[in-house]
């Protein structure tokens, strides 16, 4: 048991040193953390909240909260893509979208905290009948804090047990750090709607690359030394493939990340069942779906995920089943995650009839 106690202490200390970025298992619902060019790429307006609780079975839970909002500017000027032409808009000279996101994370007994506010801007260029290319820029302010007095270090072992009265010979008390952060990304997006109502032969998807922490900020809690935060590189992609003459669709996706010596691969797929089709001519868009699937985060966790979408509302629930070496004491329990989303226009129809 003492071995695991110091192991957890090392994990906590390592987190404070290497400062790996916040991430969610439902990564498609947090575009600001994946690629700044994703803002405004799917909806006229989207607002969402995310909550994740991790590793509560073995230590102080790692809790992560997120809230984001993104929208297209002058959406009525964007070219209509609905093949049924319920309403046609003029082609805009400039297509822009923006987003604002806030994320907060508390990690472990040392109360390693991260709060960040991110502002994103994306510009879209039409590259074909059904495709666009977007460039996104992101700027933000990050505040990190840690309480070193809460950590357990190996030099507090008196030979037989842990003694909290022995000095840990490290920095004492709470420390805080604030710095600016800059990121950018590129995204290719493709949307081909159904060729006829209810045929379910739509095909859409995107692929992108992004670079976070371009300015490599110093996130060291000591003012006497520098510890530059490694840039994080992301390669990602997803698709929505309708199965013709059925009520089913497949949504495969992946995300590959590199940050310093660390790398992460998260991939999987959802099977989507369309519960209802509504006429595109009435203007009352209430198409809904239920999705169920699984993902795998390489050498870390298997993820079971479900998503229910009704018109402009959506709720996503997932659970991480820990598969790493930590599973020996976690009992394979990772943590639950929930997402609530509202978007002004249904994803299956870009604009309502006027």
Task: Characterize the structure shown.
This protein is 7% helix and 49% strand. It has three helices and 14 strands. The protein has helices at 2-18, 31-34, 327-330; strands spanning 45-54, 62-72, 95-107, 112-126, 131-147, 174-192, 203-212, 232-242, 248-259, 262-276, 288-297, 301-310, 313-322, 333-343. It has a 14-stranded antiparallel β-barrel. Strand 1 (45-54) and strand 2 form a beta hairpin. The protein is globular and about 75 Å long. The termini are far apart. Mean pLDDT is 80; it is low at 1-19 and 348-354.
Low-confidence stretches: 1-19, 348-354
**So how many helices?**
3
Structural class: mainly beta
Strand order within the widest beta sheet: 1-2-3-4-5-6-7-8-9-10-11-12-13-14
Strand residue content = over 45%
State the oligomer: single chain
What is the count of β-strands? 14
The gross shape turns out to be: globular
Using only C-alpha atoms, the radius of gyration works out to: 23 Å
Distance between the termini: 66 Å
Integer average pLDDT: 80
DSSP helix fraction: under 10%
Elements, N to C (H/E): HHEEEEEEEEEEEEEHE
Major sheet summary line: 14 strands, antiparallel, barrel
The tally of structural domains comes to 1
